[in-house]
Amino acid sequence: MSKVVKRILITGNEACAEGAIRAGCRFYAGYPITPQNELIGYMSKRMREAGGTFIQAESELAAINMVFGAAAAGERAMTSSSGPGISLKQEGISYLSGCELPAVVVNVMRGGPGLGNIAPSQSDYFQATRGGGHGDYRTIVLAPASVEEFATFAFDAFDLADKYRIVTLVLTDGALGQMMEPVPGSLFSDMKPAKRQSKKGWILDGCRGRKARSIKSLFLKDGELEELNKKLQRKYEEISKKEVRCEVLYEKDSEIFLIAYGIVARIVKSCVEKMRKNGLKVGVIRPITLWPFPNDIISKAVSKAKSMLVVEMSEGQMVEDVRLAVGDKCKVRFYGRSGGNIPTEDEITKILIDSRRGK
Amino acid sequence: MKKVFSRSKLLKDVPTHYCPGCGHGIVHRLIAEVIEELGIREKTIGIAPVGCAVIAYDYWDFDVCEAAHGRTPAVATGIKRVLPDRIVFTYQGDGDLAAIGTSEILHTANRGENISVVFVNNGVYGMTGGQMAPTTLINQRTATTYSGRNPKLDGYPLNITDLLKYLNGAYYLERCSVHSPKEVLKTKQAIKKVLQNQIEGRGFSLVEVLSMCPTYWNMSTQQAVDWIGANVVKQYPLGIIKNGDQA
């Protein structure tokens, strides 16, 4: 008798790794750093079982550049790290972007700046959504709010990366990375990769039956680099039109919207449910793609709402994007905790009640 | 009339940006000739460095990939692991390999990656204006050592290929030079050897090539080749440094 698995209890980091494997990722290079160690640990076993390459690299720099090589050779490739390591990877992310190579990078955020601490944080938002490294480029940024989403977004990230030949970041935090949560028993077996686009037209695999080619981001001739930059901008524009993801709760009647992403969105949601029971008309906007940012969705919500409260595990980073989207159409308040602290329901509720009283 | 020499078909018929007397042109040619002779053009992927040889892909007629400064062996590792039946080699200068990429070359060798490395050592940073390299000789004047390299302040010449011989993963290491026709021929044989090792699956193989930079050595072409024969080879002796065939 076959046993039906109803639920799997798994950490976010491991679920992410399995999602990537299911997406056909067959190259992983990483370097240990807390709080993403369950991911590299899981990959070290599972990737080799799946017939792919796992390398524990000598540094974050080496890891991202191994991913660069694997991507240039046409493989679905990924690396993962946390804040300090992601800073080191920015060199490679910039080169991947200049060369238009697809890759997936996972950042399980911890407190910063510097060595900071190893507790959950959302303080790498600026770095993730502004490119991060040198040059005029963007990366798609997916922000999961549950272990299940961490797995499915890792899965989706590979299709997005390949479709646009872009680096796709999965941005989460130490809480989601390390906590265990039940996911549907069929979550992973249901993950069926879509038909992949052929990479034959651009990869480097030896010039058999075709002209020799190169993969490069160096453009010295007059006008060449600006031409590349314009091409990248057109691509980013298309992504901004087609790939925005956002969740909105109580869109129709909310007077106040709480805006949060990732794990904070869950705290905010439970806050809102309680307040709704007390008759307060509050809603939630949860950006899922942090780039492209859901400007239009937020801007539309403003037409009806009186104010917005952005809650983050940082000293205020996404709030800048919200203010850009909203302009002077409504008041945007901010509440943040940093250094590994997580905003509580009580804290958020108090801020909301105070703001209604005009404080 | 019998034709005894012609340009390799794998060397594009374009002018290079290299200075007169520079050794890169010779090393590029040797690589093109060897790949042609081994018949591996259609399965070869080269990795160009950051430095004077950064646009090597404009000169070779086979697949070539860019790499960030010093990360060349990491990029090669990624490609080779994905395509183990292809021939992957890196072309690196002394800044790329022995300074910013020290970690990558050491660990790639230590993992015994089945790749080939052509390491061109001319003792200066040519692309950026002739600054001191890790391999610059003691007392040698460069753009950042105006009164000569002073080991007490600037450190000592880094003999990285000898350092690599202690790694179990390094299979074959040889140092050659292109300062005379005889040494050029030896260099060609060494390049062939490090590629042949990869074809046979023997593991990490590197050839270091001492090369001239008359421009930033402030020398004529003749003085530059004489300088290698008289001085550079004393710090970096020529010959096989490690041969896994005889281990």
UniProtKB/TrEMBL annotation, chain A:
It holds the Pfam family POR_N. The keyword Oxidoreductase applies. Its EC number is 1.2.7.7. Residues 18-184 form the Pyruvate flavodoxin/ferredoxin oxidoreductase pyrimidine binding domain. Residues 255-348 form the Pyruvate:ferredoxin oxidoreductase core domain. It comes from the Bacteria. It is an enzyme of class 1 (oxidoreductase). Keywords: Oxidoreductase. GO terms for molecular function: 3-methyl-2-oxobutanoate dehydrogenase (ferredoxin) activity. The keyword Protein transport does not apply. This is 3-methyl-2-oxobutanoate dehydrogenase subunit VorB. It comes from Candidatus Aquitaenariimonas noxiae.
TrEMBL record, chain B:
Residues 67-209 form the Thiamine pyrophosphate enzyme TPP-binding domain. GO terms for molecular function: oxidoreductase activity, acting on the aldehyde or oxo group of donors, iron-sulfur protein as acceptor; thiamine pyrophosphate binding. The keyword Iron-sulfur does not apply. InterPro entries: 2-oxoacid:Fd_oxidoreductase (IPR051457), THDP-binding (IPR029061), TPP_enzyme_TPP-bd (IPR011766). It comes from the Bacteria. GO terms for biological process: cellular respiration; small molecule metabolic process. Keywords: Oxidoreductase. Gene3D superfamilies: 3.40.50.970. The keyword Oxidoreductase applies. This is 2-oxoglutarate oxidoreductase. It comes from Candidatus Aquitaenariimonas noxiae.
